[in-house]
Amino acid sequence: MKDYKELSICTDATETIKKAERENIELVWDRKIAQEPHCGFCELGLSCRICTMGPCRIDPFGDGPQKGVCGADAEIMVARNLLRMISAGSASHSDHGRDLVEVLYAVGEGKAGGYEIKDEEKLKTIAKIYNITVDGKTTKEIAKELALAMMEDYGMKKKEISFVSIAPEKRKELWRKLNVIPRGIDREVTESMHRSHMGVDNDYISLLLQGVRTSLADGYGGSMIGTYVSDILFGTPEPKVSALNLGVIKEDYVNILIHGHNPVVSEMIYLAVEDKELTDLAKSLGAKGINLAGLCCTGNELLMRKGIPMAGNHLMTELTIVTGAVEAMVVDYQCIMPALSEVAKCYHTLMFSTSDKAKFPGMEHIEFNPENARERAFKIVKLAVENFKNRKKEKVYIPVTEVKSMTGFSVEAILKALGGTLNPLIDAIKAGNIKGAVGIVGCNNPKIKHDYGHVELAKKLVANDILVLTTGCANVAIGKAGLQVPEGKVFAGEGLKAVCNALGIPPSLHIGSCVDNSRILVIASALANALGVDISDLPLAGSAPEWYSEKAVAIAFYVMASGIYTVLGVMPPILGSKKITDLAVNGLEGVFGAKFAVEPDPLKAGDLIIEHIKNKRKALGLAS
Ligand code: SF4
Ligand code: MSK
Questions:
Q1: Could you read off the pLDDT of 136-154 as tens digits, one per residue?
Q2: pLDDT at 517 exceeding the cut of 80
Q3: Separation of CA 497 and ligand 2 centre (Å)
Q4: What is the pLDDT at residue 1?
Q5: Could you tell me if 506 and 542 lie in one domain?
């Protein structure tokens, strides 16, 4: 019998974990226990398997080998491993961005079936950043030209990728001095893989600087392209109220869950779910209709733009199926545990994969591309509806009712809420009503009590008048805890509460999916530019209390390299190198004006951040 309260702070999770245990379903927590103890060499970054002279390990206690077969020492091993993590993370966000650019191109060519340009204004604004003239051109012409220009950002034609231009001048100067401005998104990822091959770059500083450059290729490249092209194609998010937790799965409806990251698939599923014929079919089979809900970042994308509710975050994904009320789960890519199809076998849930990049044993593969997406989405929804008859009523258990949460705070929406300029926010920061702002981002990790890190940190920060911005799985955690509705002001300190009252906003704002951390870079750059300072001068911080993925490492690096102090709740595999650990938690400050801290206790992490914000305010001459 598990100690449920130690696994999650959420009732919907603990109650469904109990059901899974009764039904003999293996979950992520079971598999984690089966893996313990985790390999200590790997945890420290002191194992290497990149060539067949190895695999090699370095003895952290100094008794055994201190070098791999090739002679790589602890610094080289840790740095190479870290660089490969950053590269995989950057590649993931950026390849997601590339898929959107391909849809944009297909729209420009008139070959993209159900897709269209939803935000022409934004198309033109972004085209101008790429120095594309828009006057006298049709929307399709601009779309095609912008897509081609973005494709160049992926290649090796440029000296600097385009969106770096949004960063404050001082930051760009620093990056140029350090030679870390990305030249091309794919180029940096490829070069990182090259450098970390045996016998190439063996200077840990040089390897880490390439890690910074690769992460910036993500933040100001692939992720920012992903965010902006999604806004162009599917609309720039605006504030709206939606709902979160397992209660958004409806007992009397056909339930379809979308999971992954790329809105290209989920937007089409959304269209199909709205179709009257399919809804009528669902009704003819005894359901009240078709209910769509999201998971992880595909969920965040639909939540932000369409107000589609979210059933959960990373550690809730298996549990949604355990409710016994899910007719189909449609996945694209990233963060989709291969275990999901095993769980689905124990229920009636149909599993569909949709990307040729991400196939799963036990899932039916229905390939999506810009030309066929509409037809394929309708096919999947029809199969899901027809599966309603296979549901076993006695297996259905939805333990909670949904919680309301606000969403849709794109940069444009925040500016609109502020009356068109950043001035009210700057005034509130200067007056001390808002002491600073912190992005709480990232995943869940079974090594940390589910959602505990996110929620406790958010509560502590807002109570200290620090505005919270959320993305990714942190959104669901903090939203479920009630901090993302205007009534969430009860958690806020007096200053932040007054701002929430004046603007009608919650103390924690949901700004999007993982790629939408780029929106944080845009806000931070705009704030720095408005004040004539660098980002590192601002009272800002970032935190990933429950991160697990390589993507989170890439995010942490580009946030730090942008000048934002970053606190992680899970230790990255670097402790095997004292030099690299010292650099991460101390030395980087003197180079980038920001550094990392690792603190699993969210209350202590909150203390670190509050102290940091106090210091930044003091340096700016603001009252603490
Ligand atoms: Fe061992 Fe060096 Fe090969 Fe790594 S690259 S496996 S340390 S020999
Ligand atoms: S989905 S990367 S678990 S935030 Fe973006 Fe959540 Fe982390 Fe995946």
A1: 999 999 999 999 999 999 9
A2: yes
A3: 30
A4: 67
A5: yes
Number of structural domains, the chain? 3
Q: Answer for the pair 612, 606: CB distance below 8 angstroms, yes or no.
A: no
Residue 16 inside a domain? The answer is no
- What CA–CA distances, in Å, run from 46 to 31, 61, 78, 197, 483? 24, 11, 6, 16, 40
Ligand whose nearest atom lies closest to the CA of 300: 2
Question: CB–CB of 36/340 below 8 Å?
Answer: no
Q: Give the structural domain span for 206.
A: 74-234
Going by C-beta distance under 8 Å and a sequence separation of 6 or more, which residues neighbour residue 110?
Answer: 140
pTM: 0.98
Longest Cα separation, the chain: 72
Kind plus residue range of the DSSP H or E element containing 503:
helix 494-503
User: 335 CA distance to ligand 2 centroid (A)?
Assistant: 6
Please state the length of the chain.
624
Q: Is the peptide bond before 237 cis (omega within 30 degrees of 0)?
A: no
Q: Tens of pLDDT along 478-491?
A: 999 999 999 999 99
549 lines ligand 2 (CB under 6 A): yes
Give the rounded distance of the alpha carbon of 398 from its chain centre: 27
Ligand 1 site, CB within 6 A: 48-51, 53-56, 68-70, 72, 198
Q: CB–CB of 70/51 below 8 Å?
A: yes
169, 178, 179, 529, 534 from 174: Cα distances, Å: 9, 6, 8, 15, 10
- Shared domain for 507 and 370, answered yes or no, is no
How many whole angstroms separate alpha carbon 163 and alpha carbon 232?
A: 16
pLDDT of residue 22 exceeding 70, the answer is yes
CB 12 within 8 A of CB 319: yes
> Is the domain of 201 the same as that of 306?
no
Cβ of 514 less than 6 Å from ligand 2: yes
Q: Does the C-beta of 316 come closer than 6 Å to ligand 2?
A: no
Q: Is the pLDDT of residue 502 over 70?
A: yes
Nearest alpha carbon to residue 185 among 225, 232, 229, 230: 225
Report the separation in Å between the CA atom of 71 and the middle of ligand 1, taken as the mean of its atom positions.
8
179 Cα to the center of ligand 1, angstroms: 28
Question: The dihedral of CA 300, 306, 312, 317: what is its sign?
Answer: negative
DSSP string over 39-79: PHHHHHT-EE-SSTT--EE--TTSSS-SS-TT---HHHHHH
Please say whether the beta carbons of 601 and 453 come within 8 A.
no
The token duo for 76 is: 């080289």
DSSP assigned state of 36: P
In this structure, the answer to whether residues 256 and 386 fall within a common structural domain is yes
Please state, in angstroms and as integers, the Cα–Cα distance from residue 275 to each residue in 9, 270, 279, 370, following that order.
37, 9, 6, 19
Same domain, 417 and 290: no
CATH of residue 340's domain is 3.40.50.2030
For tokens 């935000």, name the residue: 119
CA pair distance 362, 376, nearest whole angstrom? 19
Cα separation, 383 vs 316, whole angstroms: 24
- The C-alpha atoms of residue 219 and residue 232 are separated, in whole angstroms, by 18
For helices 74-108 and 185-195, give the axis angle rounded to 10 degrees: 160
